[in-house]
Design a protein that fits this description.
Chain lengths: ~350, ~575, ~350
C-alpha cells in the first residue's frame, strides 16, 4: 500500500514537474504563435502593419540586402523596410552612439561578430523576445539565456586557390598545407577588423599552437578589408591562395564562371556567424519582431541564401545555390566564448603585424 | 563734408563690429562644435566613444610618437603627390589660358573630367593598368620583351601618382582662375622687349600668379595629407601605411580606437596651420593688384609649330587621368568577374542590370545630386563673402576667420565625419528637432568640409582685385552689402563659377564624411560605390562608378551652359 | 622722304573683331626721327593700330613694314611675333612688374638680348639718368608712385636703344601738372635720342604740343593728317574741327567763287562773313572758327574784319585766359581772350576775326 502511494506521489511529482516545465517552455514563447506563410510569429501583425515601417541595421552586402528587403516587402506589402549597412565596428559604434544620445533608429540588427552581440546583450541592448522560430536552432546558435539573439547565417571559412597557378600536387588539403613556401608574397587574408579572421586565428592557434601563425607571417600575406578583394586578386592572378576564404564568395564567383577551387580543410572549416536580434527600444517593436521571425524562419533563410550565398544554421534548409549543406561539413566552432573575447586585443596586435599594418 | 562722415561713423563701426562675430558664430557652430567632440575623444583613454569620457589623458598622443614609419610615409607621399599635382596644374593652366593651341576651349572643359572620378575608382582603374605581375601595362611590357614588372602601382610612387593625377585638375582650376584675372599688359610688355614665350611665362607670369599657386599648393597638400582612398586600395596590400589608413583601421576595429583616430587627425591640423601661416607671410610681401579698371582682354599667345607638343601634353594628361582609367573601368564593368588576363575574360551586362534595377542606386544618385546643387549654390555665395572678409575687409581678427574656415580641410574627412556625427547626435538633445539621419545633416557636413575648397579657389582672385574698384562703389553711396552684391561679387564671377563647379562635383563624390552620417533614409552614392567594391564585386562598383560619372558629367555640361553666361565667358 | 627713311609703313590696314571693324583701311608712314601722333576719341581705332604695329594684334588685311622689313602682310600670311619685331612700347598702365626691382625691370630687355653684366649695368644707369630715376634703381617696383612708374616704363623701353618706340596713352594716368611736365620730357628724350615714335592719345593739347605730325582718327578711319598747326588752323572735316582746339562751328553756305583764298559765307543767322576757302572737297555748309582767334571790342566798331555786334552771355576766368560765351546772330560764340581785359556779363560788344581764321568745311 505504501509502495503504491509512493509511486503515485512520484508519478504526480513527475507529472507536475513536466507540466511546469511545459508551461515554462510555452510561457517563454507566446502561447499562440500565429502561423504566417512559411513561418511562425508572436508579433501582433495587425499592429505591425499599422506601424508600417521597419529599419534593419546590417553588416551584409547592400546589393544582396536590397533584394532581401524586397522579398520581405513582397510578403508584407503594407510595411516599408529600409536598411543601413556598415562594417561591423562602425555599425556597432553607430548603434551605441545613438543609444547613448537616446535617439533610437534601428529595429532589427544583423551583425557579423559575436563579440558585439554579447556586449550588446550585457548592456541590455537587445529586446527580450522569444521567437517561436528559435525552436529550429541548436543551443550553440542562440543567446544564453534564450530570447536575445540567434545566428541567422553561418559564414564558412576555408581555403581557395587559383588552379592555373597552383598545380594539383601543391594544392593545400588542410590548414598546415597553406604554410607552403610557394605561397610567399602570393597569399592574402583579411585584416584585423574582421571577426571571421579573429575566429580563424583563434581556432588554428588552439589546434596547432602559436607556431602556425609565426610561420604564416613569413609568407608576408597581403591583407584586404573585404573578401571581394581577396578573391579578385586570386582570380586575376595577383595572388595564388586565399587564406580565410569565404565559401559564399567562392559560390558567387563559381556561379559567374570563374576558374577557382575551394578547399574544405580536412581538419575542419572555421565558422563565423551573423547574429540577428531585435533592438531594445526599437521605434517599431511589432514589425521588428515580425521581421526577426521572418529572418529566422524558412522564407527569410531562403532569401538570405539566395541573395548572399550564405549557409543556413537550420538543418531543415537546402544549401545555398551550388553549395553543400553545412551538415556535411566538419565544423570548428568556438566553444569558450569568454576566453575568445578576452584574446581579442592580442589578436589585433599580432594580426596587424602579420599584415604589415603596424 | 566732415559732419556727414561723422554721422555715418558709428553705424559703420557697429556694422563692422557685428560682421566678424556674426560670421565667427555661424562658422564656429559648423566647424568648432564638432571639433570639440574630436578633441574630447582624443583625450579619452578609457572606453572609446563614450561622452563625456571617463578617463582623460594624453595616451593617444604618446602612442603616435612611436608610429614614426607611418608619419614618414604620410609626409613622403603627400609632398611627392603635391609637387606632381601642382606641376600638372601649372603646366596645363599655362597652356590653356595663355597660349592659343588648337582645340583650346574643348580641352579646357575636358580638364574638369578627372575630378568626376573618385580617387577610389581611379586607384582601382590604375590597379588594373599597372599592377605588378598582371597589370595591362606590365603584360604589354612583357610582350615587348621587358623583364619583370616595369610599373608597380602598389607602392608609394604609385599612390602619389594616382592622387596627383586626380588632384592635378583641382590645381589647374585654381591656378587658371588666377591666370585669367591677370593684366595681360604685364606679359605683353615683356614680349615687346623681346622675351620669348617661355621666358615670359617664367619671369613674368609665374611670379605674378604666385598667390594663386600658393593657395593651390596649400590646398592640394592638405588634400594629400588627408586622402585615404588611394592609400586604402594601393597601400594596404603593399604594406605601405599612412595616417589615414591607420585612422580607418582604428575606426573599424573592435573595440574601436576613436581616441587614436581623433588624436592623429588633430595633429594633421597642426601641420596645416603652420602651412597657412607660411602662406600668409608670402602673400603679404607684395602688392599684386592686377585687375584694374581698364578694359582689357586676355590675349593668348600664338605658338605656331611649337603648339603641337603642348597639345600632346594636354591630351596625354587627359589620357592618363581619364581615358585610360575609364577604359579599364569599362572593361571591368562588363566582366563577370574581374580579371586582366585576356584569355580568362567573360563578359556580361549583369552589372549594369543590377545598377539600374536596384532602386537604391537611383535614390542614392538623386540624393547626391540634390545635395550637390544645394550645397554648391549656398556654398559658393557664402564663400564669396567669406573670402572677401578674410582678405579684404578692414575688420579685426579676420585671420581668425580664415583659420576657423580652413580647419576642416586638414582634418581627414573620416575623422571629421565622426566629430560631426557626435556633434549633431548630441544637439538633438538640446533642440526640439534633430537633423540626425536626414539629408540636411549631410548638407551641413558637406558645406563645412567644402568651404575651404571654395575659399582657396577664390583667394587668388580676390587678392588681385584692385581696391579702388570697390572703394569707388562705396563713395557712390553703396552700403557694404550693396557694394558686395553689385561690384565685388560680379568681379569675382569667374572665381565663383569655378568654386560652384568644384563644390558641386566634390559634394557628389564625397565619401569620408558621408560614411558616418548616412542614414537608412539618406543614402548617397560615394559610400554606395565603396560598399559595392568591398562587398559585391569590383565589376559592380566599376559599373556604378561609370554610371555616376556619366550622369554627373551630363548634369555639369547642362549646368555649364547656364553658368557660362553668368561667369561672363562666351559659351 | 626717301624710302630708306621710312621707319613705319602701314598700308591699307584692316582689323576686325568679330563683326566690328576696329580699323578700316588705314594707311600712314612715319619717317626717321619723327614723332607722329594718332589722335582721336576712345574706340576710334588708334590703340588697335598701334598694337598691330607692335605685333600684339591679329589684323585682317593690309601690310605693315618696319625699317623696310615686312612684319605683317595679309597676302603673304606673315605676322611676325611681337618679340621678334624689335620695336619698344610704353603701355598705358605702365605694366611695371611689382615683383622685381626698378633695375630688374629696366634691365629685362637687355637680359633677353644677353648683354654682358657690365653693359647691362651701364645701359640701365644711363637711361635711369635720362629719366632722373637713378636713385631708385634698387627699390622694389611695387613701391613707386604713378609718375615714377611712368618714368621707369620709359626707361625700360629705351634701354636697348630701339629705333622705333610706341606709346599707348602713357600720360593719361598722371595728374594734370605732371602730365604737362612729362610730355615735355618725353619730347626732349625722343628728339635727343633721335628715336622714331608713334604716339597714341586722346588729349588733343598733348598731341599738338609734342608731335611732328598728327593723324586724327575717327571710327576706324583717318580724318586728317597734318602738322599740328595745319590741323588746328585748317581742319578739313567737321570732326577734326570739333575735336581739335575749341572751335565754333558756324552753319551757313559759301557763296560765289573764292578770290585770293577768301570767299563769302552766308550764315544761317543772317550776317555775311568773309571766310577762308576750304580745301577742294569742302562741302561749304559750315565754317570753323577757333575760340582763340576771336577778338572782342567795344560795341559799334566797324573798322575791324568781320565785325558783328554781340552780347556777353557768360564770362569765366581760367587763369591763363578768360572764356566768354557771346550771344551773336548765329547763336552762341565761344571766345578765349588773354586775361588782361575783362568785359562784364551782359555788356554789348563787337566780335571780330580775320577771314583766314574762319575756315569753310
Amino acid at each position: 500500500m505504501r509502495q503504491r502511494f509512493r509511486a503515485a506521489v512520484s508519478m504526480l511529482a513527475v507529472g507536475f514537474a513536466t507540466a511546469l516545465a511545459m508551461t515554462a517552455a510555452e510561457a517563454a514563447s507566446c502561447p499562440n504563435p500565429r502561423q504566417m506563410d512559411g513561418f511562425k510569429t508572436c508579433a501582433d501583425v495587425a499592429k505591425a502593419e499599422q506601424e508600417g515601417e521597419v529599419v534593419f541595421y546590417t553588416t551584409d552586402p547592400p546589393q544582396g540586402t536590397t533584394e532581401v528587403m524586397n522579398d520581405f516587402m513582397k510578403a508584407f506589402p503594407k510595411i516599408k523596410a529600409t536598411f543601413l549597412r556598415l562594417q561591423a565596428g562602425n555599425l556597432f559604434q553607430r548603434l551605441m552612439s545613438e543609444r547613448q544620445a537616446k535617439t533610437n533608429v534601428a529595429d532589427v540588427m544583423s551583425i557579423s561578430e559575436m563579440t558585439f552581440a554579447t556586449d550588446l546583450q550585457k548592456r541590455g541592448g537587445y529586446m527580450q523576445y522569444e521567437s517561436p522560430e528559435y525552436a529550429a536552432y541548436r543551443k550553440e546558435y542562440k543567446s544564453q539565456p534564450e530570447g536575445y539573439f540567434g545566428w541567422g547565417t553561418l559564414i564558412v571559412a576555408g581555403l581557395a586557390y587559383n588552379p592555373k597557378l597552383v598545380p594539383a600536387n601543391e594544392a593545400p588539403k588542410n590548414w598546415p598545407d597553406a604554410l607552403n613556401a610557394t605561397f610567399k608574397d602570393a597569399v592574402n587574408t583579411k585584416l584585423s577588423t574582421s571577426g571571421l579572421q579573429d575566429a580563424v586565428w583563434y581556432k588554428l592557434r588552439q589546434l596547432y599552437g602559436e607556431d602556425y601563425w609565426t610561420k604564416f607571417a613569413t609568407l608576408q600575406p597581403h591583407g584586404f578589408d573585404s573578401y571581394v578583394q581577396q578573391f579578385d586578386h586570386m582570380v586575376n592572378g595577383q595572388d595564388k591562395l586565399v587564406h580565410t576564404a569565404q565559401y559564399s564568395a567562392y559560390l558567387q564567383l563559381k556561379a559567374k564562371g570563374a576558374d577557382l577551387q575551394f578547399v574544405f580543410p580536412t581538419d575542419g572549416v572555421v565558422v563565423g556567424q551573423a547574429v540577428y536580434g531585435v533592438i531594445e527600444g526599437a521605434p517599431h517593436p511589432e514589425t521588428a519582431k515580425l521581421m526577426l521571425d521572418w529572418f529566422l524562419g524558412k522564407p527569410g533563410q531562403a532569401s538570405l541564401q539566395n541573395h548572399h550565398y550564405l549557409s543556413s544554421p537550420r538543418t531543415d534548409m537546402a544549401p545555398p545555390p551550388g553549395g553543400i549543406p553545412t551538415g556535411q561539413m566538419k565544423v570548428l566552432l568556438i566553444d569558450d566564448w569568454d576566453a575568445y573575447l578576452k584574446s581579442r586585443p592580442q589578436f589585433v596586435r599580432e594580426w596587424d603585424k602579420i599584415t604589415g599594418i603596424r | 563734408m566732415n559732419t556727414a562722415v561723422e554721422r555715418r561713423g558709428p553705424d559703420r563701426r557697429l556694422g563692422r563690429f557685428l560682421v566678424v562675430p556674426g560670421i565667427l558664430a555661424t562658422i564656429g557652430l559648423l566647424v568648432i562644435y564638432p571639433v570639440f567632440f574630436l578633441v574630447t575623444e582624443s583625450l579619452n583613454v578609457g572606453v572609446s566613444g563614450t561622452f563625456p569620457p571617463e578617463d582623460i589623458g594624453f595616451g593617444n598622443y604618446q602612442d603616435m610618437v612611436s608610429d614614426t614609419q607611418v608619419l614618414w610615409n604620410t609626409a613622403f607621399v603627400a609632398v611627392l603627390a603635391t609637387v606632381m599635382a601642382i606641376g600638372f596644374g601649372l603646366l596645363l593652366a599655362w597652356i590653356l589660358t595663355r597660349t592659343a593651341i588648337p582645340g583650346r576651349r574643348r580641352l579646357e572643359r575636358l580638364m574638369e573630367l578627372p575630378y568626376y572620378m573618385t580617387p577610389l575608382v581611379g586607384a582601382l582603374a590604375w590597379g588594373v593598368i599597372a599592377a605588378p605581375k598582371t597589370g595591362l601595362a606590365n603584360q604589354l611590357g612583357r610582350l615587348l620583351g621587358a623583364n619583370g614588372n616595369f610599373l608597380n602601382i602598389y607602392s608609394a610612387w604609385g599612390i602619389a601618382w594616382v592622387m596627383a593625377l586626380f588632384e592635378g585638375t583641382v590645381a589647374f582650376v585654381m591656378i587658371s582662375a588666377a591666370m585669367k584675372s591677370m593684366d595681360p599688359s604685364m606679359e605683353e610688355s615683356a614680349r615687346v622687349l623681346g622675351a620669348g614665350k617661355f621666358r615670359v611665362a617664367l619671369t613674368v607670369t609665374l611670379p605674378m600668379i604666385l598667390p594663386g599657386i600658393v593657395s593651390a599648393t596649400i590646398f592640394v597638400f592638405a588634400e594629400m595629407l588627408s586622402a585615404f582612398a588611394a592609400a586604402f586600395v594601393l597601400g594596404i596590400p603593399s604594406r605601405f601605411i599612412v595616417i589615414t589608413t591607420v585612422i580607418w583601421q582604428s575606426t573599424s576595429a573592435y573595440p574601436p580606437e576613436y581616441g587614436r583616430a581623433a588624436a592623429m587627425g588633430l595633429c594633421l591640423f597642426v601641420v596645416l596651420a603652420v602651412a597657412i601661416g607660411l602662406a600668409r607671410l608670402v602673400l603679404r610681401k607684395g602688392s599684386y593688384a592686377t585687375i584694374t579698371g581698364k578694359a582689357f582682354r586676355p590675349r593668348p599667345m600664338r605658338l605656331g609649330a611649337r603648339a603641337w607638343p603642348m597639345v600632346t601634353v594636354c591630351w596625354a594628361y587627359l589620357t592618363l587621368a581619364v581615358f585610360l582609367p575609364m577604359a579599364a573601368l569599362l572593361m571591368t564593368s562588363f566582366q563577370k568577374f574581374a580579371t586582366v588576363i585576356v584569355g580568362d575574360m567573360r563578359f556580361t551586362l549583369d552589372n549594369y542590370a543590377s545598377v539600374f534595377r536596384q532602386g537604391a542606386v537611383a535614390s542614392a544618385l538623386t540624393n547626391s545630386f540634390v545635395l550637390g546643387l544645394g550645397v554648391a549654390t549656398v556654398g559658393s555665395l557664402l564663400v564669396g563673402v567669406l573670402t572677401w572678409v578674410i582678405f579684404r575687409a578692414r575688420v579685426p581678427a579676420r585671420s581668425l576667420v580664415e583659420y576657423v574656415v580652413m580647419f576642416p580641410q586638414a582634418v581627414p574627412r573620416l575623422v571629421f565625419g565622426l566629430g560631426l556625427l557626435w556633434a549633431w547626435l548630441w544637439i538633438g538633445q538640446v533642440l526640439p528637432f534633430t537633423l540626425y539621419g536626414t539629408l540636411w545633416i549631410l548638407g551641413l557636413a558637406y558645406l563645412t568640409v567644402l568651404l575651404p575648397l571654395g575659399v582657396r579657389t577664390l583667394a587668388g582672385v580676390v587678392l588681385q582685385i584692385d581696391k579702388s574698384l570697390e572703394e569707388c562703389a562705396r563713395v557712390c553711396g553703396a552700403s557694404w552689402s550693396h557694394q558686395m552684391r553689385t561690384v565685388t561679387l560680379p568681379l569675382m564671377r569667374p572665381g565663383i563659377a569655378a568654386a560652384w563647379l568644384l563644390i558641386f562635383i566634390s559634394s557628389v563624390r564625397e565619401l569620408g564624411a558621408s560614411l558616418f552620417l548616412m542614414g537608412p533614409h539618406s543614402k548617397v552614392i560615394g559610400p554606395a560605390i565603396v560598399d559595392a567594391w568591398l562587398t559585391a564585386s569590383s565589376e559592380l562598383s566599376a559599373a556604378m562608378a561609370l554610371v555616376q560619372t556619366g550622369v554627373v558629367f551630363v548634369a555639369v555640361i547642362f549646368l555649364l551652359r547656364v553658368t557660362r553666361r553668368y561667369s561672363g565667358e562666351p559659351a | 622722304m626717301s624710302e630708306t627713311d621710312i621707319r613705319i609703313d602701314i598700308r591699307n590696314l584692316v582689323v576686325d573683331y568679330g563683326d566690328v571693324r576696329a580699323v578700316d583701311d588705314v594707311s600712314l608712314s612715319v619717317g626717321r626721327g619723327e614723332l607722329v601722333t594718332l589722335l582721336g576719341p576712345s574706340g576710334c581705332g588708334k590703340t588697335t593700330t598701334l598694337r598691330s604695329v607692335a605685333g600684339l594684334e591679329d589684323p585682317t588685311g593690309g601690310s605693315i613694314a618696319l625699317n623696310g622689313t615686312l612684319v605683317y602682310s595679309a597676302p603673304e600670311r606673315r605676322n611676325t611675333p611681337a618679340e621678334k619685331r624689335g620695336v619698344s612700347m610704353v603701355f598705358q598702365s605702365y605694366a611695371i612688374w611689382p615683383h622685381m626691382t626698378v633695375f630688374d625691370n629696366v634691365a629685362y630687355g637687355l637680359r633677353v638680348r644677353r648683354m654682358s653684366a657690365n653693359d647691362i649695368r651701364s645701359n640701365v644707369m644711363r637711361v635711369l639718368d635720362l629719366v632722373q630715376m637713378r636713385n631708385f634703381a634698387d627699390r622694389p617696383a611695387s613701391r613707386l608712385s604713378g609718375g615714377q612708374q611712368q618714368r621707369v616704363a620709359v626707361a625700360r623701353a629705351i634701354a636697348f636703344s630701339p629705333e622705333v618706340l610706341l606709346f599707348d596713352e602713357p600720360l593719361s594716368n598722371l595728374d594734370a601738372k605732371l602730365r604737362v611736365s612729362m610730355r615735355v620730357e618725353l619730347r626732349e628724350l625722343q628728339k635727343g635720342l633721335g628715336i622714331t615714335a608713334l604716339y597714341v592719345t586722346h588729349d588733343q593739347e598733348e598731341a599738338l604740343a609734342i608731335s611732328d605730325r598728327v593723324i586724327v582718327m575717327n571710327a576706324g578711319r583717318i580724318e586728317q593728317i597734318g602738322t599740328p598747326e595745319d590741323i588746328y588752323r585748317h581742319p578739313r572735316t567737321l570732326f577734326v574741327a570739333d575735336f581739335v582746339g575749341n572751335a565754333n562751328v558756324i552753319q551757313g553756305q559759301a557763296r560765289g567763287a573764292p578770290v585770293g583764298g577768301e570767299v563769302n559765307f552766308v550764315t544761317v543767322g543772317g550776317p555775311v562773313l568773309r571766310a577762308a576757302a576750304g580745301h577742294a572737297q569742302a562741302k561749304g555748309d559750315a565754317a570753323a572758327l577757333q575760340a582763340a582767334y576771336v577778338d572782342i571790342f567795344a560795341p559799334g566798331r566797324t573798322d575791324v574784319p568781320n565785325a558783328t555786334p554781340g552780347t556777353i552771355h557768360r564770362c569765366m576766368f581760367h587763369g591763363d585766359f578768360i572764356q566768354y560765351v557771346v550771344d551773336w546772330p548765329c547763336g552762341q560764340l565761344l571766345v578765349r581772350r588773354p586775361p588782361t581785359n575783362r568785359f562784364a556779363e551782359g555788356s554789348a560788344v563787337t566780335v571780330s576775326f580775320a577771314p583766314e581764321h574762319c575756315v569753310v568745311l
